[in-house]
Amino acid sequence: MAEFKVGGLDPRATKFRNVPIAVTPEGFWCCPSQTVLQKTAKNQNQQPKPKAGASPPASKASSVQRAPTISSEKRTHSTPTRSRANSEEQRCLPAENATANPPKVVSERPQKQHKISVGFGQIEMSDLRVVLYGKDGVAVKMSVHKNILTENSTLFADKLSRQSPVSNIEVPDCEDVEIYVETVGLMYCNDVKQRLIKQSVPRVLRILKVAELLGFRACVLSCLNYLEAVPWAGEEEENVVSSVRHLQTEDYGVTPVLKRVCSDLTSPPNDTFVRIIELVLKSSDDRGRREMKSLVLKLLKENSSCTSTSADLCVDTLYRYCQNSLESLLTLFKQASDSDFSEQSLDLKEAVFRQITLEADNLLWLTEILAGRNAAEEFAVMWSNQRELAGLHSKLPTKSRHLVSCITARLFVAVGKGEMLPSKDTRQLLLDVWLQPLMDDYNWLQHGCRSFDRTLVEEGIGSTILTLPLEDQQTILLSWLGSFLKVGNSCPNLQKAFEVWWRRTFVRPYVEHQGNQLQSGQS
Question: Is the pTM of this model over 0.70?
Answer without folding.
Answer: no
